[in-house]
Amino acid sequence: MARILLAEDEEVLRMLITDTLEDLGHKIDEASDGEEAYRLIQQHGYELIILDYMMPVYTGMELIKKIKKHPKQSGAKVIMLSAKSQAADQQSVLKAGADEFVSKPFSPLMLMDKVEEILSSD
């Protein structure tokens, strides 16, 4: 299964997503802010990176730019999670390089389906 980085500052949501994805057999690394996420990005290669739009230190948008420039992550897929669900917000996230945009609140099963879909698209 895939190695996934989950960067989400809400602990309960991070635990829910991690449990859901681990049940599918994925290896999940967790970060509670953008700085921790960036440190993990520099250390490991990920098939998928799930980012919260609004996080302390680096936002999800700032991290997308860093991910796309990092040689270890050039092939990583990115899913952005955000409560900012206006069409313009979604467009800016996709234009920045995210592969998927998921509006909060969301169903864990829907996210699970998105993760499986994006990982099987290679």
From TrEMBL:
Q: Which PROSITE patterns does the record match to this protein?
A: RESPONSE_REGULATORY
Q: Which PANTHER family match?
A: RESPONSE REGULATORY DOMAIN-CONTAINING PROTEIN, STRESS RESPONSE REGULATOR PROTEIN 1
Please state every residue range assigned to the domain named Response regulatory. 3-119
Q: Name one GO molecular function term.
A: kinase activity
Q: Which Gene3D superfamilies match?
A: 3.40.50.2300
Q: Name one GO biological process term.
A: phosphorelay signal transduction system
- CDD domains reported in the protein's UniProt record: REC
Q: Which residues carry this modification: 4-aspartylphosphate?
A: D52
- Keyword vocabulary terms for this entry: Kinase, Phosphoprotein, Transferase
What SMART domains has UniProt attached to this entry? Answer: REC
What is the designated name of this protein? Answer: Histidine kinase
Matching Pfam families = Response_reg
